[in-house]
């Protein structure tokens, strides 16, 4: 009898670490105190950052969760969504890497998902279908980003926030207005993720130059939609000259990379795998900066004074406090100056739309 009760106790202890709980292991026994190493690490026993992904069960959320689970900088990974997180969490939690994974389902579990987080990544919301613009997603995604940002303001106001949900040109101002209302706004800690534009630009430019994309660095400034995506081809590293035809081809391909994927997927969504890759790289930079690594430079869409437009993507230096320095745009050629003026007009109206949504 004693042996059976010991086994039951052990099973109950293991079950107490499963999220969602596994009814096969739980039985009727009450769960005694948690003693496993996973518990200690999730309480902050092991060094590492705590990261939450909101929208973790989606097309971006799932591969991004997997990439975050293999990031050694992360000790605790919270996966939140309004559907399917139990399955995604069970699946990812079986990977034998360091991070402890917990799943959270629905608004009543948002507090648990966010409390104590250092970095919150938000890919929640609907994706484009062929024929749609990113702005067509505003009606649904604005409300989703608003309510998730309210959660961040309440439960982890000091976290760094990476916004992926489209239209990024409007959703970042929406989050900012929510944080301002809550009295928690720190412009250095709110970043719109435009890394996919840089990843694409590096790839397409490398193809034209016939080099390895890992050796190419293309600054992409402005915003994250159509003509607001402005690759600065005059500043490509390694320094490279392009013919006017190449500039036209590359600018068009980079600005329409998202649409290229939406059309190829033919109704099954937009970029998810390359986006998860880009978001994971960007998150890694944020975490290395939080750790105190020097010289972390990324392009990001932020509260900015680099132009007269209140939010703008450009190269920034990241540090322990988030955005520590916004780098100047550098010398632009005539084509880039003209394109910048067009981008600014569209950006201004997308920003206004986001701000008005929260203020109404
Ligand atoms: N910034 C970028 O470069 C970039 C790139 C690709 C996609 N996106 C955008 O990212 C978003 C997500 O794309 P996807 O392909 O993963 O879409 P998806 O539909 O596959 O996944 C979205 C997930 O969000 C979840 N969700 C919806 N409402 C939620 C809420 N209130 N709280 C938590 N989760 C919620 C859904 O349940 C779903 O699992 C879209 O808006 C898309 O346009 C941005
Ligand atoms: O194009 C989209 O709708 C998704 C994303 O913004 C992208 O650039 O791939």
UniProtKB/TrEMBL annotation:
This is Malate dehydrogenase. It is an enzyme of class 1 (oxidoreductase). Keywords: Glyoxylate bypass, NAD, Oxidoreductase, Peroxisome, Transit peptide, Tricarboxylic acid cycle. NAD(+) binds at residues 55-61, 81, 141, 164-166, 275. Belongs to the LDH/MDH superfamily. MDH type 1 family. It is found in: Peroxisome. One of its GO terms (cellular component) is peroxisome. It catalyses: (S)-malate + NAD(+) = oxaloacetate + NADH + H(+). Homodimer. One of its GO terms (biological process) is tricarboxylic acid cycle. Substrate binds at residues 128, 134, 166, 200. It comes from the Eukaryota. The active site is at residue 224. GO terms for molecular function: L-malate dehydrogenase (NAD+) activity. Residues 50-192 form the Lactate/malate dehydrogenase N-terminal domain. Its EC number is 1.1.1.37. The keyword Methyltransferase does not apply. SUPFAM superfamilies: LDH C-terminal domain-like (SSF56327), NAD(P)-binding Rossmann-fold domains (SSF51735). Pfam families: Ldh_1_C, Ldh_1_N. The gene is MDH2. Residues 194-358 form the Lactate/malate dehydrogenase C-terminal domain. CDD domains: MDH_glyoxysomal_mitochondrial.
